[in-house]
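== Polypeptide entry ==
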Amino acid sequence: MLTSLYVRQFAVVEKAEIAFGPGLTVVSGETGAGKSLLVDALMLLAGARADSAMVRAGSDRAELAAEFDLAALPQARAWLQREELDEDGACQLRRVLRAEGSSRAWINGRPANARQLGEIAELLVEIHGQHEHQALLSRSHQMALLDAYAGHDPLVAQVRELATQWRELGARVRRLSGGEDRDHRIELLRHEIAELEKWALPAAALAELEASHKRLANAGRLAEGASGVVDLLDGDGEFALRRALGRAQAELGKLATLDERLAPLLELLDNAEIQLGEAVDGLGRYAQDVDLDPDRYAEVDTHIARLHELSRKHRLPVAELHARLGEMQAELTELEGAGDALDKLDAQRRQVQREYRECADRLSRSRADAAMRLGQEVGALMGELGMAGGVLQVGLEAVADTDPDPLGQERCELLVSANPGQPPRPLRKVASGGELARISLAIEVATLGNDAVGSMVFDEVDSGIGGAVAEVVGQKLRALGMQRQVLCVTHLPQVAAQGHAHLRVSKRSDGDSTYTHIETLDAAGRRDELARMLGGVEITRETRAHARQMLERGQTAEK
């Protein structure tokens, strides 16, 4: 459940901190006051694309933050634990938008990306925008809506998984029983495996080969260089290091007889002379032992060249060729033993297909039952929403292909008749904009509450209706508010009167700047706001009385 929303320097809002409780909270205000900014803020906290224009003019950044109580949301708590973002059973989303266009986000005080914001927001809040009814024209959306209404998620996932398994098994069968293609593949694998067995090396052997190649390629330089260093250290020249060190030892030895404090330093020179001698001996042996074998170098060079050719051929780094050898050997073993493997795969595929049919049949029966119930419920709501005699049918059309389909054995099409006597036709072909909005609202009301999110937000989904129809919508939203938290931006007093709490958004100006003010109304404030919504500019005593009656009726009757 959303417990608080903090907004600072966001559009025309300088600063606002709003506390939310359970039930239906309605938001009202004059046109242009910024009612939908609360919804915009929640959408940005849910990972929506940021726009620098949302930063208040004259400010360098906008700050948004929302806190949620996760006591009744185990899936959200589990997600936070998986992402290592959990914090004492609560969740705080925070986002900063900068005027130059960048934005940053945090979850429980830790940096987060847009993906993480979107994933956790899906578990916390469901937002219904003003133009969402356009999505209803998509047949895939219609099927998803029917499955959500019926609670088919586990069954749909099982059908999809079984169809995927069936297809994967089919692909393996085709690969193993490919006729001439299979024979050609076996021949090719044998040839390529023979190549890799000859040339590909494990990591340690490859490293040794490359080191040997480098050493052999530079053998002459290594021998000559080592001999040259020996000459520098112990050659016949006057400035050879060993001669100079001997002279230094002799001189320091004389001085040490005059001052015993020089004895330790003389010992250091003696040690240096020993180490220098060992270095000279080692370099001499190295220069003599350097491998100058051109035949060995040619052999190693050929091996390296073949490895690079195989690397290009298989489009893999040289270091991964040995692992590829193991994969190809496993594939060859599978292809050569295709007879037994095919029998097992065929048996597995038939079993998966039987399981798919059983599962898909259950889904089909459940969809047919849900389609009838949804059609009846939406049809009744269409009448309540001012479309008397309107009919909605949820048509299910069998898929012609008999192979397992990840979406099931049928496709969905919403058929509607907005007026009595007209035959139902596809919604995407017959509904006008106004009719589509009302039908969409009826479907939303009929399917509300089918998921586990803690908060639902509606941004003027009641536009285009009024009178008794608006009161019905308010009653439905209030009833939903008895099950979960609902936030509804509305311009209709009939809806606003049904709220458990009421926020008013107003716009103020000091001549230089414009500010949006958001306040929680008490009983008297609610009555005055309903009167404004009913009466417009001039509010009479009769308007206030009507507002009081509407508020009393909305607060006493739970539908």
Observations:
- The longest strand covers residues 2-10.
- The longest helix spans residues 338-384.
